Amino acid sequence: MRRTRGFTLVEVLVALAVVAIALGAGVRAASALSDNAQRLDDVMAAQWCADNQLTGLRLSRTLPGIGDADFTCEQLGRTYRGKLVTRPTLNPNFRRIDAQVSDESGYLLVTLSTVQGR
Question: Are 65 and 97 a contacting pair, CB within 8 Å?
Answer without folding.
Answer: no
